[in-house]
Amino acid sequence: MNHLLKQAKRVASECECGHEHQWIEMDELQLGRNAINYLPEYLHEKGLLHVTIVADANTYAVAGQLVAQLLRGRGIDVENCILKEQGALTLLADEHGLGQLVIGAAKETDVFLAVGAGTIHDLTRIASYKFGKPFIAIPTAPSVDGFTSMGAPVIRDGVKITFQTQAPIALFADLDFLTQAPRSMVAAGFGDMLGKSTSLVDWQVSHMLNDEPFCPAVFHMTKSALTMCMEHADEIAACNEQGIRLLTEALIMSGLAMLIFGHSHPASGAEHHLSHYWEMAFLRSGGTQPLHGAKVGYATMLISALYKNEARKKIETFQGEGSPLVNSIHKHRERLLMLIDTIPESSDIQRLLESVGGAVKSADLALADSLEDEALEKAHKLRERCTLLYCLNEHLKTS
Ligand SMILES: [Zn+2]
Ligand SMILES: [Zn+2]
């Protein structure tokens, strides 16, 4: 078992912060070159001898067919379910994608193998759950931190809904596959990680001002993952093996931190709310959806600029009083300003994103300028969360 999983399990069982941590069912995590070679033995140990590989044409070519070959050579029965794009649109976690999976899955399957990036994992997560079967994560790109998540975001009738389903029972992150990922997906994973520089501040704000749950050990796990990415940005930008390994480790660490915490607070703050806002706009317009991490990375630049300028000034000069939240802002003024100081400058986030080839302006995401301002004004309404964006829009601006 990999040290990341051991660390997460230790926090889940030993942390005495008072928060009710979630136990991790996952019992195997392999990360490295040839990590996939551990899979046949794992399946035999568990008696999971009939598998369905879920992939798309690209991920099947890079990884799926090798996995199928490896398993068949070890006496495991393999069914392939290759998901297709919908006309000109990319594969989405929606009714069409799920329909393909339900039709393509073999009835006698013991376990599903998600061989792909975020969308393949979301589809496999919800379908396996509905079939009452476990699934195993085999990421082919270090593009998101949600591989180990329980939540499956699915688009139904054009609207995104997140269903609580199941986490994978095991994860095999093979660097032979991951190092072949397109640069845009590496940049997206890096963007999703940089998002923690504002999500961790929002989490502390929500705990301080609104008594939302908090765990120092989970905070530390997520913060370490972020620091690792920022310190090794050059290697990640070079897409060399060490860079891809570190980014993958950071994404897995962030995902496990969320899993044991049982809520998305550590990894998702106002920058993710902006990203969700844009995602819904793209769904309505039918435009090509930019990668999750590409939106999050750019949103992190905007939130950093907003927090370090307007929010900082408002907090410094804020005179309102009355509601419990307003009183709390008064009481914690100094601490709030200190938290804002821990956020990297927007220009530094931009430089890091640029070095990896990530989106750094609205045009890179094909995002209308009006949607940028609109999201900054309204995105906090999407989630019940006391972020600094919420405080700014609902309380500080009116003072
Ligand atoms: Zn994310
Ligand atoms: Zn704790």
Automatic annotation (TrEMBL):
InterPro entries referenced in this protein's UniProt entry, alphabetically: G1P_dehydrogenase_bac, G1PDH, Glycerol_DH
Looking at the keywords, is Metal-binding present? yes
Q: Name one GO cellular component term.
A: cytoplasm
Annotated positions binding NAD(+): D56, G118, T119, I120, H121, D122, T140, A141, P142, S143, S149
Cofactor(s), names only, from the UniProt record? Ni(2+)
Q: List GO molecular-function terms, semicolon-separated.
A: glycerol-1-phosphate dehydrogenase (NAD+) activity; glycerol-1-phosphate dehydrogenase (NADP+) activity; metal ion binding
Concerning Pfam families, the annotation shows: Fe-ADH_2
Enzyme Commission number, as recorded = 1.1.1.261
CDD domains for this protein: G1PDH
Protein's job: Catalyzes the NAD(P)H-dependent reduction of dihydroxyacetonephosphate (DHAP or glycerone phosphate) to glycerol 1-phosphate (G1P). The G1P thus generated is probably used for the synthesis of phosphoglycerolipids in Gram-positive bacterial species.
Name of the featured protein: Glycerol-1-phosphate dehydrogenase [NAD(P)+]
Which organism is the protein's source? Halalkalibacterium halodurans
- State the encoding gene: egsA
